[in-house]
Amino acid sequence: MPKWMRVCLFIIGIVLLTWVVYGLIQGVGINKALQGGIIGFSCVFAAGYQKKMYLSSEGIVKETKNWNRNYREVLPWADVVHVTLVFRGNELMCFFEKDFKGWKVLFDASQEMKIRDILSINIPEIEIAVMYKSKG
Q: According to the 3-state scheme, what is the secondary structure of the chain?
């Protein structure tokens, strides 16, 4: 999510939470306060959420950050059994299969050669399938 959007969500969340406190003091009622409180808290929570996925020498890395919590999950190259590249317009979706499930990572289509180089270095024995989807 772009930084400007996170800032807007944070401001909206704080305004809503301030409105809830003001409403409770003025006696608006718990139902209206609860609705605004849930939406305001959700906006503040979403403003602090960041997710990043990338390829590294370890494997495919998924980093999730939310205010004071950081999570890092790695799908090692050794666990990848198949790779599918799906092109749609200027987008490239890489699906890394592990058993019956897998991870989807989105890239710009112009990065195809870099991705293929990384895959050939780290998992040269794995087959890479290619699909093309039309927009619409």
A: CCHHHHHHHHHHHHHHHHHHHHHHHHCCCHHHHHHHHHHHHHHHHHHCEEEEEEECCCEEEEEEEECCEEEEEEEEHHHCCEEEEEEECCEEEEEEEECCEEEEEEEEHHHHHHHHHHHHHHCCCCCEEEEECCCC
